[in-house]
Amino acid sequence: MNLNEYLSMNNQDKFDYFMKTRTSTNRTPKYWVNWDKVIRDLKEHELNLNTLNYLVGKKNIRQEAKNLFISQPDLLKTIPVLLATRDSDLDVLAFDDIGRMYTYNINFHDIDISKIDKYINFIDETGLFDFLSQHVNRSLVDYVFGVEAGLDSNARKNRGGKQNEDILSHYLELMCKKDDELEYSTQATADAIMKRWNAYVPEILEKGRKGGRRYDGAVYNKATKKVLICETNFYGGGGSKLKAVSGEFSDLYATSLGPAKNVEFAWISDGPGWDTAKNPLFEAFQIIPNIFNLKMVQEGMLKELIKGEK
Predict the structure, then answer these.
(1) pTM recorded for the entire structure
(2) What percent of the chain has pLDDT over 70?
(3) 229 exposure class (CB count in 10 Å sphere: 0-12, 13-18, 19+)
(4) Domains of the chain: residue spans and CATH
(5) Nearest by Cα to 233 from 271, 188, 288
(6) What are the angstrom distances between the C-alpha of 1 and each of 7, 26, 196, 206, 291?
């Protein structure tokens, strides 16, 4: 289907076409682990980890560790990653001898070696000493490589949000590479668009943020002097955010981008999550003419829109 055919439909038919042509996932192979980050984070600890290998298999590990940390306090900065956490300033819940609950803080970033016994007791109570003395079969560098890969998997949620931005960037690059009249930018503000292309886009000042809104993508047509503003997202599951984002982009189009001269707006969204929020999405279709999914982008609708082929 081309853009003209899509825009000639009534809103119900457009909505139905959008829903039935969605994709089930936006996860490329790079989604699961960012190996470059894993290796980079590992190198930060590698020297300390090789030194801490000294403790592996030690029988009197508490005393051996205490002596080692007193002589090299910075080794304590590596303890959090051995516990599979990014946090270095920890609040801890504990119980005293008669069972009363209390909390204490232990800081592995700003080391206070005068509190060495506090560090030793904490490490012991986590079970790390037992693990090092009885269960480690390989280098701690190899162990932390696995830990870092696991910690990186916790960042998948953030990567999932960025995936659609990367996919959009991929299509914009392909589109502009094949057409000398088109140029694109990602994470573009109204100010950046004005400076680069001398094209006016209404400034959207977001609450609690400095500067204007950053748009996921912007395409400029040198022949027509038009700008296409793109926002994109993907929802694998439901939640209140889907209703909120429908309202957000509807307001953005109705109050700012829609009335602006020489500005087009496209909202590119996708994912099975919209099955849980059909009503707010359909309401957005009443306001925003250019709501596309990834298949529609692949079919060339963004290029048709900025080239005026409708």
Answers:
(1) 0.72
(2) 94
(3) buried
(4) 3-29+156-307 (3.40.1350), 35-153 (no CATH)
(5) 271
(6) 10, 21, 33, 36, 14
